[in-house]
Amino acid sequence: MDDVHTTGAAAGHFLRSPHAHARIKSIDTTAARALPGVLGVITIDDLKAAGARTITYPVPVPGRNGTTLIAPYRPALADGRAMHVGQPIALVVAETPAIAQDAAELIEIDYEPLPAIADIQDAIAPGASQLWPEAPGNIAIDFVAPQAGYDVQQQAVERAFASAAHTVEVVELNQRIVVASMETRGGTASYDPVSETYLLRAPSQGVRMLRDQLAASLDLPPQKMRLLTGDVGGAFGMKTAAYPEYVAMLVAAKQLGRPVHWISSRAESFQSDNQARDTVTTARVAIDSDGRFLALKVDAIAAVGAFLSSHGASIASNNFARCFPAMYHIPHITVDVQCVFTNTVQMGPYRGAGRPEANYAIERLVEEAAKVTGIDTVELRRRNLIPPAMIPYHTAVDAKFDSGDFEGLFDKALAQADYVGFGRRRAQSEARGKRRGLGISCFLEHAGGMPGDEAGVRFPGGEALVVALGMHPSGQGHASLYRRLAAQLLGLDETIVVVRQGDTDLNIMGGASVASRSTTTVGSALVRTVELVIEKGRKLASLMMEASEADIEYAHGLFRVAGTDRHLSLFEVADRARTLNDPLDTKGQAIVPQTFPNGCHIAEVEIDPDTGVVTLAAYTAVDDCGNMLDPVLVEGQVHGGIAQGVGQALWEEVIFERESAQLLTGSFMDYTMPRADDLPMFETAAHPVPCTTNPLGVKGTGEAGTTGALAAVMNAIAHAIPGPAGAALTMPATPEKVWRALHS
After folding, report:
1. What percent of the chain has pLDDT over 70?
2. Per residue in 386-422, pLDDT tens?
3. Which fold has domain 453-590?
4. Is there a contact between 228 and 234 (Cβ–Cβ < 8 Å)?
5. Phi and psi at residue 470, to the nearest 5°
6. Which DSSP helix (H) or strand (E) runs through 262?
């Protein structure tokens, strides 16, 4: 983002709140405006004068008994109250970044500190201060699943627990983490007074979605705003939605008549980018005397932050609930989730987005169930896997798993990890004075969502083809994948295909590259687009060659009259269509159901009892992502996801001071990230079962590594430290925690 310089762009710097919760009694910008080189200082008054509205339009989430999601007004710059540390208060625009930063320090703000809440359990405790009057008890939504027939399921769950031979309960914490993308957020905003249009160049995962949210925040028709996105240095869901800084920059660009450029520092990103997880889950399972699961009851409390992001509440509720019962046959399930406001950074999508939280809870529960029932952990899983005869499988929370071979995949993972040889490896570790443990994590997640993506195929002239996309990648290899797919579908050499994306002026409808949805939705849209191109081209070719349309065949880039050598190339037909003012350019749309990727990940850890240091000794991942269009890209997605999941399991954690809600882990000096030498070489394998609900037979894969890794690593640690102390360990499993568990 910082490598592209717009001519005449001024530098922006945001003054941010040092308080987690405070009333803003006054803002004096006089001294800042007087500093030489300062072009302007933007506050909430300027935004109101420009007609700016709330910046977040959350995805609706239905609540218990017909209640709806509570979405407080979220201004782009603080309006009367600061609600979390790092909330932007003012934007200073100057000739250089240094001048802008100096000027920001001259702004005088009179704060009146107010009680702050950092912890979700504190937020819902009796007597807790109320952050929003419209949200009693600090509850944004009280969500239940299934949404239809919840009472019936609840009664069935209660009966199952009353008759069960065993009932098992775990309480699991998914700690808050920062996204920490390699490239921080930034943007360059400008305004054209002649056309009265805005332009924002910013990192995104889909320009259409970001454009529409920002246009709504400024009360503009979408066509009055253009969004451009180039290469993005990591996103993982965090760069999907609108942020306050973008609105303030757009207003400043119009007011000052200059482009405004801003790039976040790493410290700012810790205080302002959407964060993730922060969930406490209580999961209970009822089991019969044969070790069969009868019912599952899940209760969770999830943070949404001080404000709602576009998808924060949806992730903690719908995304979370839809993952149950994973690979297991559990006839009766209820899920209850309370989404809670706190004086912290808003929560949003991050790799997995509800799926790792759900899988972690159920796989930790299965491990505890094995101990309680005395059934071997592998055998207990095998007894409860959904058998092939039950596919398609309708879950108790209204999902339908269309495909999968869970038993075959499970056995393949055990063989790939050399499960039977673990005893030998454990003995070798013990001979070196180390503890060794093995952890299994079976998972099933949902991928897709946000239906309605388009793909465009355009013929600019000559032997060239342009594929236009609405969503945007951040390292997933879309340009290679969709170029190759279009070429294969049309029977062309892929070198003549160019992929264009990252520009709302392409006029292609599409969501963001989140939820492992890109290939399913855009790939299906591209299939449909090619079908339409061939259909339209066949009609024109029949006229050009004076033959019946029914006799026109298409293959390998040629329209041919069946049984003859008469033919026209696709590009010849496209050139003729252009001369007739009826171009062959086509857009196609696909609305496809969600897919259900699944897998089994097995981790082995080695622990030094003298220091508590955990070493990830081995990691095996076997995944079913349906048909693989590019196995190398699939493997890369799995590798990256595992690294992020292991990072959360062993090192990463956002910590707030409990009383003041001050951020204590505000840089990489305090927040530990995984490094390359912390990770072993991963053993990966595929067990593809084609999806039946889209033309390519693909399922998602981007979330798989993260979803499987948390429980695999933590179950391995618990296996190495038998007894209550190991089972009670919470993420991240830092050396101190592990050492105390070993010696308790």
Report:
1. 100
2. 999 999 999 999 999 999 999 999 999 999 999 999 9
3. Aldehyde Oxidoreductase; domain 4 (3.30.365)
4. no
5. -95, -30
6. strand 260-263
- Give the pLDDT score at 591: 87
Give the sheet arrangement for strand 38-42, strand by strand.
38-42, 88-94, 10-16, 260-263, 186-192, 197-201, 225-228
Angle at 682 between CA 707 and CA 696, to 5 degrees: 60
DSSP 328-339: B--SEEEEEEEE
Cα(229)–Cα(214) distance, rounded to whole angstroms? 15
Q: How far from chain centre, in Å, is Cα 414?
A: 29
CA 89 to CA 666: how far, in whole Å?
A: 19
Q: What would the DSSP string read from start to end of 602-629?
A: EEEEEE-TTT--EEEEEEEEEEE-BS-S
Contact 18, 85 (CB under 8 A): yes
Choose among 197, 183, 201: nearest CA to 502: 201
With 0-12 / 13-18 / 19 or more C-beta atoms within 10 angstroms meaning exposed / middle / buried, residue 413 is buried
- The answer to whether the CB of 708 falls within 8 A of the CB of 621 is yes
Name the one residue in this structure whose structure tokens are 């390998």.
Answer: 556
Buried/exposed 418-439: b ≥16 CB within 10 Å, e otherwise: ebeebeebbeebeeeebbbbbb
CB atoms within 10 A of CB 237: 26
By the 10 Å C-beta count (0-12 exposed, 13-18 middle, 19+ buried), 592 is classed as buried
Residue 654 has pLDDT above 90, yes or no: yes
Domain-wise residue ranges, the chain: 402-447+595-743, 453-590
Domain 402-447+595-743 coded CATH 3.30.365.10: yes
The reply to whether 453-590 shares the fold of 402-447+595-743 is yes
Rounded to a whole number of angstroms, the distance between the first and last alpha carbons of the chain is 50
The token duo for 477 is 């290899």
Provide DSSP, 384-422: HBPPGGG-SEE-TTS-EE----HHHHHHHHHHHTTGGGH
Instruction: Give the pLDDT score at 510.
Output: 84
- Count other C-beta atoms under 10 Å from residue 110's C-beta: 11
Contact (Cβ atoms closer than 8 angstroms) between residue 109 and residue 22: no
Nearest one of 294, 313, 315, 317 to 305, comparing CA atoms: 313
The structure tokens listed for 311 are 């998808």
pLDDT value at position 603? 98
Under a CB-based contact definition with an 8 Å cutoff, are residues 200 and 608 in contact?
no
Please state whether the peptide bond connecting residue 597 to the residue before it is cis, i.e. omega within 30 degrees of 0: no
Instruction: Please report how many Cα atoms fall inside a 13 Å half-sphere around the Cα of residue 433, on the Cβ side.
Output: 6
3-state secondary structure at position 288: coil
Q: How far apart are CA 583 and CA 574, in angstroms?
A: 7
Residues in Cβ contact with 435 at an 8 Å cutoff, skipping those fewer than 6 apart: 429, 606, 607, 609, 720, 721, 742
Q: Which residue shows structure tokens 């559990």?
A: 330
- Between CA 337 and CA 311 the distance in angstroms is 15
Task: Indicate whether 236 pLDDT > 80.
Answer: yes
**Distances in Å between the alpha carbon of 489 and those of 454, 493, 658?**
16, 11, 57
